[in-house]
Amino acid sequence: MKFNVFTEMEYQVGAASTLILSINALRNQHQTVLSEEFTISPYIKTEELPSVNGENRLIRFEVTDAELIKISYRATVDNCYKLVDFAEKPDIPVSQLDPAIFPYLNPSRYCQSDKLFRLAHNLFGHIENSFNKVLTLTRWINKNIEYLSGFSNAHTSAFDTVTEQAGVCRDFAHLGITLCRALNVPARYFTGYSYNLKPADFHACFEAYLGGDWVLFDGTGLAPLNGMVKIATGRDAADAAIANLFGNVLFTSMIVSCELAEGENFEPFYYNSNSTHGICYL
Prior knowledge:
Layout: E1 2-13, E2 17-21, E3 32-41, E4 47-49, E5 58-63, E6 67-78, E7 81-85, H1 117-124, H2 130-144, E8 146-147, H3 158-164, E9 166-167, H4 169-182, E10 187-194, E11 202-210, E12 213-217, E13 228-234, E14 243-246, E15 249-260, E16 277-281
Parallel strand pairs: 8-9
Antiparallel strand pairs: 1-6, 1-15, 2-5, 2-14, 3-6, 4-5, 7-16, 10-11, 10-13, 11-12
């Protein structure tokens, strides 16, 4: 499925500063970036950094003078996903996991799975099939956490979200990851462009590692699961933040869009209570 994605961001820079952005669509074996353009006005030289934690395409640049800068990114991306039936698919025990998966079992900055261990097991520990377990906890998050735009901040963790019972997509994703890890299900943060998300914005979800596949879940239920263009994955938002700012930098405005490319037909896919098929972005 081909999508046209676009973002425009403005920052007021007060003194010499460095910005590291993660807004470029991920380029891998299965998600093809057919065309893209990254520009900064006024012109500033940039460099793309290699991925260290998870998957991302980080763009770093230095602003030497106090000025207003405008960043724009547009791309046409052909994403790829598959549907996997987990009704009879066996779980992979921790003893047989690839070591590369281990970081997604452990607590991280925003996902204190050790603090929510008792809650996770009391609510979901009795469910045997791991796909059903993650689907059930995702639906629990959707029912019990209120989506409130602008409610949380960069310090909000999954433990805070359970306490406040409200948050934004980032918080919904962190809570899903935390509950999964507390149940010994590896989980990671997923951020991307999202088709039919209203209001349009970058979107955060989470992926659980089930039966050898990374399966996408979205506690907000705000967008179709098959309309995502992946930007990055990581242990939590610390690994996959849209922007990391070092210096005197003030964010002033942003526009984000994700539209179908010409000639594409789209049928939205969501999970329901009887779902056995999970969607896996490759």
